[in-house]
């Protein structure tokens, strides 16, 4: 009898250890977004979006808001209640070589979803996202990113590819889209034509000439029609700096809310604060479009310190400073 009890105890212990190992294995597999390598490709990005949707179907909506010049989808990820009264917008990767911002946005999305029933800074994530839906467009420039990561051969359209090879600028340092237009300078706010098609500096033939810019403008307008957009966060790199000051043209409420967003971001990241830029000096940047045309509070966060594309070794430091930043910004408005 004693022998049987000992044997039973050993079997029970073995089953307990096996169950624990199984749980550990499942938890290890739960991480979807890989941040251990530098070139986070469009294919990997799309696959991760599918996995996030499958794993968190009740709290995560994936929508296509448009297509790039080379017909890659521009994806929106909605966290929380799409019918919420308030909406916070987050965009990344307007500049091609700044593609680590895609990984950062995707890792933030996964982190908030995996901790949906938990608390951050004393507030339950689910309660925040029920009141303030967060809308991400992690990659606004998938064509340019493909160029920066793998070269001009990644552009499938023959006409676009031939034109690119005649433009100035190396593929690795590519900043523009597949038509050689800087997507951060293509907005309908004090627009002026400048530069030539190439890696950087070209504003385009006219404001919002690019399919990516048009899609983002329509995206913002659509969300505004259904609720109150409380703010915009735009992720760029590099410099570990913040753009959060407003010029005199900003409405009083926009200025005060932007200041709140900026102060919180500064307290979490320790990034340096950049001087105020006037509309004229801004050369039609996206931030100035949101501030002065759409009258939306907006901050731009430049992550990292090295030259772009940022080295993968920088991600750990960037993550520590930005992990909870977006959900904490949402808490300002819940």
SSE arrangement:
Layout: H1 2-30, H2 42-55, E1 60-67, E2 73-79, E3 86-92, H3 100-114, E4 119-120, E5 123-124, H4 125-131, E6 132-137, H5 142-150, H6 158-164, H7 211-226, E7 228-236, E8 241-243, H8 252-269, E9 272-273, H9 279-282, H10 286-293, E10 298-302, H11 315-322, H12 325-331
Parallel strand pairs: 3-6, 3-7, 7-10, 8-9
Antiparallel strand pairs: 1-2, 2-6, 4-5, 8-10
Helix pairs in contact: 2-3
Short synopsis of the structure:
By secondary structure, the chain is an alpha/beta fold. It has twelve helices and ten strands. Helix 2 (42-55) runs parallel beside helix 3 (100-114).
Question: Can you describe what's shown?
Answer:
This protein is 43% helix and 15% strand. By secondary structure, it is of the alpha/beta class. It has two domains: 1-30; 38-145 and 205-331, Zn peptidases (Aminopeptidase, 3-Layer(aba) Sandwich). The chain has an eight-stranded mixed sheet, with helices on both faces. The protein has a two-stranded antiparallel ribbon with strand order 4-5. A hairpin with a 5-residue loop joins strand 1 and strand 2 (73-79). Helix 2 packs parallel to helix 3. Residues 1-7 and 11-29 have low confidence and may be disordered.
List keywords for this structure.
two-stranded antiparallel sheet, 8-stranded mixed β-sheet, 43% helix, Aminopeptidase, 334 residues, 2 domains, disordered N terminus, alpha/beta
Beta-strand content bin = 15-25%
Structural class: alpha/beta
- Under CATH, the topology of the largest domain is which? Aminopeptidase
Mean pLDDT: 92
Computed over alpha carbons, the radius of gyration is 22 Å
Could you give the order of strands across the largest sheet? 1-2-6-3-7-10-8-9
Name of the CATH class of the largest domain? Alpha Beta
| Helix content estimate | 40-55%
Number of domains: 2
Distance between termini?
63 Å
Q: Please state the second-level CATH architecture of the largest domain.
A: 3-Layer(aba) Sandwich
Q: Biggest sheet, in brief?
A: 8 strands, mixed
Number of helices: 12
Number of DSSP strand runs = 10
Strand and helix order: HHEEEHEEHEHHHEEHEHHEHH
């Amino acid at each position: 009898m004693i022998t049987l009890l000992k044997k039973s105890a050993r079997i029970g212990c073995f089953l307990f250890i096996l169950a624990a190992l199984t749980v550990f294995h499942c938890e290890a597999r739960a991480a979807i977004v890989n941040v251990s390598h530098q070139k986070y490709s469009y294919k990997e990005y799309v696959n991760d979006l599918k996995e996030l949707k499958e794993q968190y179907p009740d709290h995560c909506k994936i929508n296509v808001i448009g297509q790039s010049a080379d017909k890659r989808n521009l994806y929106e990820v909605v966290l929380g209640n799409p019918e919420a009264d308030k909406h916070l917008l987050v965009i990344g990767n307007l500049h091609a070589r700044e593609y680590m911002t895609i990984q950062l946005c995707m890792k933030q999305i996964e982190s908030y979803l995996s901790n949906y029933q938990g608390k951050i800074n004393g507030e339950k994530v689910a309660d925040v996202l029920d009141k303030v839906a967060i809308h991400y467009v992690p990659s606004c420039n998938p064509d340019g990113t493909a160029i920066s990561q793998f070269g001009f051969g990644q552009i499938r359209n023959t006409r676009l590819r031939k034109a690119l090879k005649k433009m100035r600028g190396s593929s690795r340092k590519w900043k523009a889209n597949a038509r050689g237009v800087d997507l951060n300078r293509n907005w309908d706010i004090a627009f002026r034509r400048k530069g030539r098609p190439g890696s950087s500096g070209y504003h385009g033939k006219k404001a919002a000439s690019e399919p990516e810019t048009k899609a983002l403008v329509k995206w913002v307008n659509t969300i505004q029609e259904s609720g109150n957009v409380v703010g915009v966060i735009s992720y760029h790199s590099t410099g570990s700096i913040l753009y959060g000051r407003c010029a005199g043209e900003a409405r009083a409420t926009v200025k005060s809310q932007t200041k709140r967003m900026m102060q919180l971001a500064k307290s979490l990241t320790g990034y340096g604060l950049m001087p105020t830029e006037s509309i004229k000096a801004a050369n039609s940047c996206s931030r100035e479009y949101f501030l002065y045309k759409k009258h939306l509070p907006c901050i731009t966060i430049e992550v990292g310190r090295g030259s772009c594309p940022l080295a993968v070794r920088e991600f750990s430091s960037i993550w520590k400073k930005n992990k909870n930043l977006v959900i904490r910004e949402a808490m300002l408005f819940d």
